[in-house]
Specification:
This protein is mainly beta. It has helices at about 5-25, 295-300, and strands at about 35-40, 45, 65-70, 85-95, 105, 115-120, 120-130, 140-145, 155-165, 165-170, 170-180, 185, 200, 205-210, 215-225, 225-230, 235-240, 250-260, 265-270, 270-275, 285-290, 305-310, 315-320, 325-330, 330-335, 345, 350, 355-365, 380-385, 390-395, 400-405, 415, 425-435, 440-445, 460-465.
């Protein structure tokens, strides 16, 4: 006799079998692909025989900054929070073993606040989160220094590898050369008697402080708004300044497929003309020579809107008597220094009744011939003060002006004028003054607190504001 329990067991077995068969009929889910992540960093380092010292007791700045790059770019959510695209342990191994006897390796800035474990010339760094893109995936820096064993021409490399579950890493190699070409530039000075509008025939040259020579040199010359590069040498390319960008630069890139020796100096076969405009004043001209092989020049030209020159070519000439002490890493010159501007403040004379609010215009102008750029201060404004006529209060103040209620203020209001100020600039600052009391010949003024260097006409650096002047108006 078949019992009810046996029937139930049979039905259950059939149901499980059916479920199993159904499960087998469903295609297996494809395994998730590992996240591709690449190690980033410089391809090579030329380790100087003359390194810049760091702070006492501290290593100098790292020459090698490492990081990770994952697909996409980091995008914050609606709350401004950016989340990682991977969470899970991974390990980065930095192997500098081949630099033994070549350079000293400092791993102290690697791994951020967690640091890395170091054994000899191998550092092991652990991480957990990876973000999209590059910005949030810094690994830190490595500092290299020459030692008593280092010699020009020594080579080595740093191999960076990484591994982690669910991650497919692409490693990175940094090649290290000791004492390779290192070009410093002759520091220039403004010629005596130089005036705005003149052209400086610049004797540009470099000294190779590296222990090795090379082949291929690039000269980059740049100038701010008052500087022009009038010649069009056949081996130079020119990128003009955007005329709407008052703080922009024009530049030229000149290419020399020439050999140069270690410890030697070279100059141009002809001076490099640098023109100045009639409004130029403390404009900045900079230049630099760099050791760049011919196959890398296209990358530099792709960084700007360069146009090829059409004139004769410049060459390089060895300078046997050059003094290495006259050369520096960064060569810049601010000139011309002798030009002047003429800042002018004007007030207004008008009549008003008690209780009346009247507009009072303060005029500002630059009558040139120079512009006022303050290029080194990055756009710092200049300021003038306003003393109100007695018996008045300010109902409305113009943009850029604020009440000077602090101790040591030199006037009632302080007004700022952004720089650069063009050579023909003008602007009006309109105050709404309420007349609380009628005072005949009530006089205030707008004024600069001091005479600026290169001010050509201090006599008009202030202007009177007169309400209800005596006599005819």
């Amino acid at each position: 006799m078949i019992t009810l329990a046996a029937v139930r067991r049979t039905v259950s077995a059939l149901a499980l079998a059916a479920l199993a068969a159904g499960a087998l009929a469903v295609p297996a889910q494809a395994q998730e692909e590992p996240l591709p992540v690449s190690v980033t960093g410089p391809d090579s380092v030329n380790l100087s025989l003359h390194p810049e010292p760091g702070e006492p007791g501290e290593p100098g700045e790292p020459q090698i900054e490492l990081g990770l790059r994952a697909p996409g770019e980091p995008v914050p959510d609606e709350n401004g929070v950016t989340y990682p695209i991977h969470q899970g342990e991974y390990t980065v191994t930095v192997d500098a073993s081949s630099l033994a006897g070549v350079a000293a390796v400092n791993f102290s800035r690697l791994g951020g606040w967690q640091g890395c474990s170091v054994e000899g010339l191998v550092a092991t760094c652990r991480g957990y989160e990876i973000y999209a893109g590059r910005d949030y995936n810094d690994l830190g820096g490595i500092r290299l220094d020459v030692t008593d064993e280092s010699a020009a021409g020594d080579v080595g490399s740093i191999e960076v590898t990484a591994a982690g579950e669910g991650l497919a890493f692409t490693g990175h190699t940094v090649d290290v050369l000791v004492g390779g070409p290192e070009l410093q530039n002759k520091q220039l000075a403004e010629p005596e008697g130089f005036k705005a509008g003149d052209t400086f025939q610049a004797p540009l040259s470099f000294h190779n402080v590296g222990g090795l020579g090379g082949k291929g040199v690039v000269l980059r010359v740049s100038g701010t708004r008052g500087i022009s590069l009038p010649s069009t040498f056949g081996n130079c390319w020119y990128d003009p300044r955007d005329p709407h960008d008052l703080r922009g630069w024009s530049s030229a890139l000149c290419v020399f497929d020439s050999e140069f020796a270690g410890g030697a100096s070279y100059g141009l076969s002809a001076p490099f003309p640098v023109g100045t405009a009639g409004f130029a004043l403390y404009d900045v001209m900079s230049y630099s020579f760099s050791a760049v092989p011919a196959d890398k020049v296209a990358d530099l030209l792709a960084e700007g809107d360069y146009r090829a020159g059409t004139g004769p070519e410049l060459g390089l000439v060895r300078l046997p008597d050059a003094d290495p002490a006259g050369y520096t890493k960064y060569a810049e010159m601010d000139f011309p220094t002798k030009n002047t501007f003429d800042l002018d403040l004007t007030g207004e004379r008008l009549r008003a009744r008690k209780g009346q609010t009247v507009p009072v215009d303060i005029g500002f102008a630059n009558h040139g011939p120079a512009w006022l750029a303050l290029l080194r201060s990055g756009g710092e404004p200049i300021s003038f003060w306003v003393d109100l006529p007695p018996g008045t209060t300010v109902a409305t103040a113009p943009e850029g002006c604020r009440a000077a209620s602090w101790e040591g203020a030199e006037g009632d209001y302080l007004c700022n004028i952004d720089t650069p100020i063009l050579e023909d600039a003008s602007r009006t600052f309109t105050f709404g003054l309420r007349v609380d009391e009628v005072i005949r010949n009530a006089t205030g003024r707008a004024f600069f607190a001091y005479t600026m260097p290169n001010e050509g006409n201090p006599a008009n650096d202030s202007g009177e504001i007169v309400l209800n002047p005596r006599g005819r108006h």
